[in-house]
Amino acid sequence: MSRGVTCSAPGKLMLFGEHAVVYGRPCIVTAVDQRMRATISLRADDLFHLEAEDVQLTGYEKSISELGKGKIPRGAAFVERAVQLFCEHTGWAGGVSVEMRSEFSALFGFGSSSASTVAVLSALNVATESGLATEMLFDIAYKTVLAVQGKGSGFDIAAAAWGGTLWFVAGGEEVEPLNLRGASIVIGYSGIKADTVTLMEQVRRLAQQDPALVESVYDSMGDVARSARRAIDECDWKTLGSLMDINQSLLASLGVSTAKLDAMIGAARAAGAYGAKLSGAGGGDCMIALVPVGNEQPVQAALAAVGGVALAASVQAPGVRLE
Ligand code: PMV
């Protein structure tokens, strides 16, 4: 077996435009400094072997030609599909061992699946000397997500691949770096694990009832993202905070906020945040608050007072890298 190649990729937080981005509007996403590590070793046989203790998967093995076939355990889905699509794209047919290690809990909704997918593809790219560019790794990773969960904009894949803070349009149609220099973001976990696919389905059903109305909500979300991009360029944090508040109201109108998220968002605003909103599909997971630099502690205390958990993670983390 070859010496291992390890790559790590960051998690993500949606700043603006969740849900609307699935329907063609732009969003703004930032990478968080919680990383997923993948180690790839090439094998002399033709087996795919996976060790992923964080998701209680050890010694999972099948032939490379069988990838994607038969029953795939939940914890193996993204990695197995990623390796399959990589092999299909490059013609690689040799055996590979994959070892996954996570720095973050899959509970927070930081995007452990997308970070795993990008870390695996990047390590495979190096180990097999395939020389694929980041854009191609993004495309294969995005196909992986669509193969596993059927739907999604790929914003989380983009954050894992490029890192930093990005302006993003679904499928990678637009990926442009933004700079959050000097902005301070407090992250609060609601304690409730949300299921992104269920939430997306709930919003799709709502849109079926009144397509024109929901389309107009998506349009407004797109406008908010465009204004937010200008505010970020101008380091205008007060305006950015109010745009977060507007985005939150639009998300609440789609029915994806929860009483707990509302309480945390209200508490953050009352403790001096410029603005606050849920981040991601909603239904639980995390909220974010934009706060004046130096005012993080009172906002974190306010989140704790309503039963939230302030997470110590920083934003605008570097994208996938060789370790
Ligand atoms: O729940 P999260 O953090 O994975 O965010 C989902 C965001 C959506 O816009 C609802 C879906 C997507 O793929 O963009």
Low-confidence stretches are none
User: Number of helical segments?
Assistant: 9
Mean pLDDT: 95
User: What is the β-strand count?
Assistant: 12
Report the sheet with the most strands, covering strand number, pairing sense and barrel closure: 8 strands, mixed
Helix/strand class: alpha+beta
Q: Give the proportion of residues in helices.
A: 40-55%
Q: What integer value in Å does the Rg equal?
A: 20 Å
Which molecules are bound in this entry? (3R)-3-hydroxy-3-methyl-5-(phosphonooxy)pentanoic acid
Helix and strand sequence: EEEEHEHHHEEEHHHHEEHEE
Question: Termini distance?
Answer: 19 Å
Quaternary arrangement of the chains shown? single chain
- Please state the overall shape, judged from the principal axes of the Cα atoms: globular
Strand content: 25-35%
Report on the structure:
With 323 residues, the chain is α+β, with helices and mostly antiparallel strands. It has nine helices and twelve strands. Strands 1, 2, 3, 4, 5, 6, 7 and 12 form an eight-stranded mixed beta sheet that branches. A four-stranded antiparallel beta sheet has the order 9-10-8-11. Helix 1 (77-90) packs parallel to helix 2 (112-127), helix 2 (112-127) crosses helix 3 (134-149) and helix 3 (134-149) runs antiparallel to helix 4. The longest helix has 23 residues, at 211-233. The model has no long low-confidence stretch (mean pLDDT 95). (3R)-3-hydroxy-3-methyl-5-(phosphonooxy)pentanoic acid (PMV) binds at residues 14, 18-19, 21-22, 109, 111, 152-153, 155-156, 196, 200, 280-281, 285. (3R)-3-hydroxy-3-methyl-5-(phosphonooxy)pentanoic acid is lined by residues 14, 18-19, 21-22, 109, 111, 152-153, 155-156, 196, 200, 280-281, 285.
